[in-house]
Design brief:
- This protein folds into two domains: 4-168, Rossmann fold, CATH 3.40.50; 180-380, Rossmann fold.
- 34% of the residues lie in helices and 17% in strands.
- The protein is built from 14 helices and 17 strands.
- The strands form four sheets. It has a six-stranded parallel beta sheet. It has a six-stranded parallel beta sheet with strand order 11-10-9-15-16-17, sandwiched between helices. The chain has a three-stranded antiparallel beta sheet with strand order 13-12-14.
- The longest helix has 15 residues, at 34-48.
- It is elongated.
- The N and C termini lie close together (5 Å).
């Protein structure tokens, strides 16, 4: 995989830059700019090199139809503000644009083609559509790691027609994930949460042989608490998960990876109820587990303190309510403390984990925070991502 940062002579070259600008929109207003902020270094680099930038991206799932609410217009405005340069949204149908000289008709140096998913050929991974787009540029750059698990035309087919490179953000993401999957500094710990164990079973199975500790928190831990014979009351759990739990336990024993689950918990009768610390043996049938207890927090902190590398995917409880955010906050603060002392390499990912870190204003206190979602998990599973394969 060749990085665009090492490429010489980009002056006046037309760069087809695939980004993930799929930001949350409410009434045409962006509510979270994290994904835009992360790709600014690549844009600044290309601007400095005096390249002409043609951005390809999407918002939402228009399913091959023009949906006015999913226009890239608000993103165009946001980029213009952040870059302090004019950015032009090209709303003309891509199929009607004949060649790359089209862009000589405008004064701007940065263009955004309207939502690439307005064309059904994008998600159909249509080779002819990709060839058509390739006629608009000289070089292709993928800086959309979070879309790189998709077999879409602008991700997989476009690199076949142009010299192709990775962007700075994609390089950062792959390097960070390599440090927790292949270039590991041990001891290494994974703290993993989420409500469904089945969605992360392949991640866990892939990590167990490489990791020293797998710490189960959140809804996922409830399956283990129940499996070992304690009542979890009316807590969330995944049905028919005993087989998966047993598989994880057996594999962790075989590979000498220590599997940790809560020793004590914080319960309540409802999501907005009062918190109560309880031993596992004391949970009542009308109570739900909403956070980890002090003994468990102390145990996890001790594990973090002896770790050199840490992966965190999934909060420890229902952090949206401050009453049940203590476990997640203590974990975050302890990782940050170790990070600042340069004792640990830390990677966090997953929508809820990113939200939690945003709430704490702590995204920049980790070595890397991934917003990639599906691609993040598939990489951790050990899968080859089509977008990365296409660049290779």
């Amino acid at each position: 995989m060749r990085s665009i940062i090492n490429e010489k002579n980009l002056k006046n070259k037309k760069i087809l830059l695939r980004l993930d600008l799929n930001v949350p929109l409410e009434k045409n207003k962006i509510t979270d700019t994290t994904r835009i902020d992360k790709i600014l270094p690549t844009l600044h680099f290309l601007i400095k090199e005096k390249a002409k930038i043609i951005i390809l991206s999407h918002v939402g799932r228009p399913k091959g139809k023009i949906v006015k609410e999913l226009s890239l217009e608000p993103i165009c405005q946001e980029l213009q503000n952040k870059l302090r340069k004019k950015v032009k949204l090209i709303t003309e149908n891509i199929k009607n644009i004949k060649n790359k000289d089209f862009f000589n008709n405008f004064k701007e140096e940065i263009f955004i083609l309207e939502n690439i998913r307005f064309y059904s050929e994008e998600e159909e991974n249509d080779n002819r559509f990709a060839k058509l787009i390739s006629n608009l540029g000289d070089i292709y750059v993928n800086d959309a790691f979070s879309c790189s698990h998709r077999t879409h035309a602008s991700i997989c087919e476009l690199p076949k027609f142009l010299p192709s490179f990775s962007g700075l953000q994609l390089d950062l993401e792959v390097n960070a994930l390599n440090k927790i999957t292949s270039e590991i500094t041990k001891p290494i710990t994974c703290i993993i949460g989420g409500s469904k164990i089945s969605t992360k079973i392949n991640v866990i199975k892939n990590l167990i042989p490489k990791f020293d500790y797998i710490v189960m928190v959140g809804g996922m831990a409830n399956n283990f608490i129940e499996f070992y014979g304690s009542s979890i009351g009316k807590s969330i759990k995944e049905k028919n998960s005993d087989k998966i739990v047993k598989e994880i336990i057996n594999l962790s024993k075989k590979k000498q990876c220590k599997l940790i689950y809560p020793e004590d918990v914080v319960v309540s009768k409802g999501l907005n109820g009062s918190p109560q610390i309880k031993e596992l043996s004391d949970i009542l049938s009308d109570e739900m587990i909403l956070d980890i207890g002090p003994k468990t927090i102390e145990k996890i902190i001790n594990i973090i303190n002896v770790s050199k590398t840490i992966l965190w995917n999934g909060p420890a409880g229902y952090f949206e309510n401050q009453n049940f955010a203590n476990g997640s906050i203590k974990i975050a603060k302890n990782i940050i403390e170790n990070n600042k002392a340069k004792k640990i390499f830390s990677v966090a990912g997953g929508g809820d984990t990113v939200s939690l870190l945003n709430n704490l204003n702590a995204v920049n206190d980790f070595n890397f925070v991934s917003t990639a979602g599906g691609a993040f998990l598939e990489y951790l599973e050990g899968k080859n991502l089509p977008g990365i394969t296409a660049l290779n």
